[in-house]
Design the sequence.
């Protein structure tokens, strides 16, 4: 197991390295004077001089790459042009929103998808099966931003003044604010340390923050605001997971050992739950890792639909403002997160399937 | 007289030539007849044929020019709701099945013309990704060694990014616009084709007929492109069909964010994106382009699933 984990880690390192090189090359491909591009048209000659010195634009490309790498590895992405604040600080404020959204969507998609898949497989060729599969086919074909807008319209306008009304935008209602847990507990944070950044990051996960501080009004408000975005974002992965679970379970249910289990008189529920499901879940776990990429991509679109201040919206707004430090910081962070998540999925896969470890 | 029946006559043996005579049915025709027997293949094919028809004859079918501003032409207002005479709309008013958009144009004509744009987007991005992806994958799988190593690690790096995110980043560098968006989507999807081609080539190149070709002194180029690749195409065809669906979705997403097709091009994602703030007052301007995207993507997804079942029943049915 440890050997496998190490080998898998060794494969991830060149990929991470490659991601840094790709983002470096992209940043250097921006047309025009790098200083004017990075700092804005109004940058003075003196500022540009300092900038060129700092990032080594007058140095050979390898030196520039070295400076870039050492900056990124220290979590330093420079300052945003638009906000005049460190990109890292913006990430600490915005990334938790995206993580909360993607994670909740993943949980919903997995539970609903697996359940629907099991129902479809157990009632193979029944009305329930056909309906689920038609629904799943339509689900994977829907654009996430369209579904988001339609949900906002249905629950925000049609159900207005009923108990089904849900807020179509924002993270919290006006007048409700989330108090960071460290302030509630009266912790004194050292300014600008990595630890305090981490705590700030955690406190920006509003639902988590409200849970640990037992602040139920904020908790419910945050949850209510998340329902529509999560529904929109979860639909595509849910459909994919449902299809995968169904086909995988159907495959396993046709195996000899399942026939043996049935032949010895086990209840069908036990056959499915204790014998078939474990093996049927293996391909589903692989799909989960791949779906996380789709979730992170979809989060960009979902945030933009529901007016949520996450990294996706930060990125899109930065593109129109030509705020390159933000574009670079967000791209690197999400890509690294994605690689790390996939690494974890692969490791859990090898835990679930002992055959992988032997290879 | 065929060689077989001549042999039969010569040796005066009774060889049943039934079914052995005549031309063998070409493989692609077998595949199509199998595809037509599969439900998802049938539905997908019908949807795509209808879309192709609409795309080809968009100018004839659509009641208005998609770019024509109707101010002064008809008594219509900006973002008017749909008016269908058949459903009881006042016949005195001009008929607009999908309503009027934010620039006082006929939404229905724009949605119809969007078919042309979206199909072009899907086909061009997938063709470009296929061309390079299949080439890299084939070379990688056939030659192996350090070429394989370099190409595949490069593909791993591209796959290291969530696809739409990398596409957004590429557009950020190149600048918003439909061409850059298409280029970005092609680059982002290329590794899938390379990987699948490589795996397929790896399994085909071990077969006996390839060895026979080698013994006969065929060049690497001949073996790879005329012997191995044609026999390794099955999974690639399936992936490409499904890939058209994803490409259309991704392009619509980029356009929705304002990074892809720019107005006034009647692209569904752009149409949806430019009216998204009017969702509460004019939901039809969001509803119809979205439905159009969904039907198109559904068509290619169903056809892809059908092709997978038709071309290789052993492939994974997910």
Sequence:
């Amino acid at each position: 197991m440890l050997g496998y984990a190490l080998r898998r880690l060794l494969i991830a390192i060149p990929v991470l390295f490659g991601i840094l090189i790709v983002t470096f090359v992209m940043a250097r491909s921006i047309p025009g004077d790098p200083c004017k591009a990075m700092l804005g048209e109004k940058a003075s000659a003196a500022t540009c001089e300092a900038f060129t010195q700092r990032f080594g634009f007058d140095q050979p490309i390898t030196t520039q790459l070295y400076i870039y790498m050492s900056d990124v590895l220290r979590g330093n992405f420079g300052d945003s042009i638009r906000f005049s604040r460190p990109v890292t600080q913006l990430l600490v404020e915005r990334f938790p929103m995206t993580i909360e959204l993607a994670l909740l969507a993943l949980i919903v998609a997995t539970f609903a998808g697996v359940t629907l898949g099991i129902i479809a497989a157990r009632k193979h060729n029944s009305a329930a099966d056909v309906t689920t599969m038609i629904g799943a086919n339509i689900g994977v074909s829907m654009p996430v931003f369209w579904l988001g807008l339609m949900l906002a319209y249905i629950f925000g306008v049609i159900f207005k003044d009923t108990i089904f009304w849900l807020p179509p935008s924002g993270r919290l209602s006006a007048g409700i604010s989330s108090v960071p847990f460290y302030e509630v507990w009266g912790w004194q944070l050292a300014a600008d340390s990595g630890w305090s950044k981490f705590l700030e990051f955690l406190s920006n996960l509003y639902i988590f923050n409200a849970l640990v501080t037992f602040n139920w009004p904020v908790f419910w408000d945050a949850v209510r605001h998340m329902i529509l975005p999560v529904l929109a974002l979860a639909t595509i992965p849910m459909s994919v997971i449902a299809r995968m679970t169904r086909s995988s379970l159907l495959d396993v249910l046709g195996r000899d050992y399942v026939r043996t289990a049935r032949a010895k008189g086990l209840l069908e529920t036990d056959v499915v739950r204790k014998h078939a499901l474990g093996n049927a879940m293996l391909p589903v776990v692989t799909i989960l890792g791949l779906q996380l990429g789709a979730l992170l991509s979809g989060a960009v679109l979902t945030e933009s639909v529901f007016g949520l201040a996450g990294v996706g919206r930060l990125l899109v707004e930065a593109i129109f403002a030509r705020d390159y430090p933000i574009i670079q910081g967000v791209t690197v962070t999400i890509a690294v997160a994605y690689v790390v998540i996939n690494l974890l999925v692969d490791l859990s896969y090898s835990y679930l399937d002992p055959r992988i470890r032997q290879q | 007289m065929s060689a077989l029946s001549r042999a039969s006559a010569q040796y005066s043996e009774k060889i049943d030539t039934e079914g052995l005579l005549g031309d063998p049915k070409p493989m692609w025709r077998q595949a199509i007849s199998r595809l037509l027997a599969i439900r998802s293949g049938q539905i997908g094919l019908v949807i795509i044929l209808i879309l192709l028809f609409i795309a080809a004859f968009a100018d004839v079918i659509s009641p208005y020019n998609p770019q024509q501003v109707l101010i002064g032409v008809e008594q219509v207002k900006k973002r008017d709701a749909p008016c269908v005479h058949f459903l009881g709309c006042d016949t005195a008013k001009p008929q607009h099945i999908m309503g009027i958009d934010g620039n006082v144009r006929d939404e229905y004509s724009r949605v119809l013309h969007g078919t042309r744009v979206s199909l072009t987007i899907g086909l061009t991005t997938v063709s470009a990704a296929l061309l390079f992806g299949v080439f890299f994958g084939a070379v990688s799988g056939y030659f192996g060694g350090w070429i394989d190593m370099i190409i595949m690690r490069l593909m791993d790096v591209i796959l290291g990014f969530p696809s739409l995110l990398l596409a957004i980043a590429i557009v950020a560098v190149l600048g918003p616009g439909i061409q850059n968006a298409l280029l970005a989507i092609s680059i982002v999807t290329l590794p899938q084709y390379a990987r699948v081609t490589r795996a397929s080539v790896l399994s085909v190149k071990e077969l006996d007929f390839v060895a026979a070709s080698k013994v006969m002194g065929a060049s690497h180029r001949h073996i790879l492109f005329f012997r191995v690749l044609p026999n390794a195409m099955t999974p690639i065809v399936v992936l490409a069909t499904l890939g058209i669906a994803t490409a259309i979705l991704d392009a619509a997403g980029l356009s929705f964010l304002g990074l892809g097709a720019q107005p006034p091009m009647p692209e569904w994602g752009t149409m949806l994106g430019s009216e998204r703030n009017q969702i509460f007052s004019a939901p039809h301007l969001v509803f119809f382009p979205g439905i159009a995207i969904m039907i198109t993507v559904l068509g290619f997804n169903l056809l892809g699933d059908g092709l997978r079942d038709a071309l290789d029943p052993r492939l994974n049915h997910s």
The radius of gyration of chain B is 25 Å. Chain B touches chain A through 50 residues (CB under 8 Å). Residues 37 and 110 of chain B are 35 Å apart (CA to CA). Chain B has one domain: 49-311.
